[in-house]
Amino acid sequence: MRDLRAPTFPPGQGERLVRDVYKRDFRERYEAIRHADSWKLERRQHFEEKGSPSRDALSRGDWAEALRLIDARREDLIASALDDERRGSRFHRVRVVEKPLTPYLQWELHSLRQRAECDERIRTVDAEMVAASESEKILPELVVLGGHTLYEVLYTESGESCGAVRHTAPDVVGIWEGYIKELYRAGEDVETYFAREVAHLPPPTMNAE
């Protein structure tokens, strides 16, 4: 199994942003990107997402409704992809996966498969590939926007978003962007992973989370 070792953050660097400030800052910086790509690393296997009707349906155990609501947003994703294309920007995502899949991750992989169908670049990476970097704690949740801004996205123990640490030092942004790109190159296209590992699964049992 290939070993992909992660860099580290220099101590004391970065600016802590509360959740609302992070969301606003992210949106403004993302919409300003021209002719540059963005990269995201997702590591946690469970999140509590606010404002997602499909995620709410999953929490209620209504799997059919959760999938219906995912499909209902297809036109919005296509419009977003067209906007990215006009700005000369592509969004790439690396999703670390562990088996057995948590109910959240099974749901999210349906969502990611749809995003890939709507032109987002998404690959999966088995958790064993990053194990050597996780002797003390798991990898952080990261987003790099346009090669200039890195967010270390923060979550509570239960998986609720609680803000981010923003980094703009070129050396920090560059080394982490390079690491995510390396993971992406080593990963598997989410659509082929989904077809082999997810498509046949029965609805998840929510008390497994």
Index terms:
209 residues, alpha+beta, Endonuclease, Chain A, eight-stranded mixed β-sheet, 7 helices, 8 strands, 40% helix, 20% strand
Any overview of this molecule?
The longest helix has 17 residues, at 170-186. This protein has seven helices and eight strands; from the N terminus they run E-H-E-H-H-H-E-H-E-E-E-E-H-E-H. It is an alpha+beta fold and 209 residues long. The chain is globular and about 45 Å long. The protein has a single domain (15-208), classed as Endonuclease Chain A (Endonuclease, Chain A, 2-Layer Sandwich). Helix content is 40%, strand content 20%. It has an eight-stranded mixed β-sheet with strand order 1-7-6-5-2-3-4-8, sandwiched between helices.
Element layout with pairings:
Layout: E1 15-17, H1 19-31, E2 38-42, H2 53-60, H3 63-72, H4 74-86, E3 91-97, H5 103-117, E4 121-126, E5 141-145, E6 149-155, E7 161-167, H6 170-186, E8 188-189, H7 190-197
Parallel strand pairs: 2-3, 3-4
Antiparallel strand pairs: 1-7, 2-5, 4-8, 5-6, 6-7
Helix pairs in contact: 2-3, 3-5
General shape: globular
Low-confidence stretches: none
Strand residue content: 15-25%
Order of helices and strands: EHEHHHEHEEEEHEH
Question: Got a strand count?
Answer: 8
Please identify, by name, the CATH architecture: 2-Layer Sandwich
Number of helical runs? 7
Fraction of residues in helix: 40-55%
**Whole-number average pLDDT?**
94
CATH hierarchy class name: Alpha Beta
Strand order of the largest sheet: 1-7-6-5-2-3-4-8
Rg result = 17 Å
The name CATH uses for the topology is: Endonuclease, Chain A
| Biggest sheet details | 8 strands, mixed
State the end-to-end CA separation.
Answer: 28 Å
Look at the structure and name the CATH superfamily. Endonuclease Chain A
Assembly state? single chain
Domain unit count = 1
Helix/strand-derived class?
alpha+beta
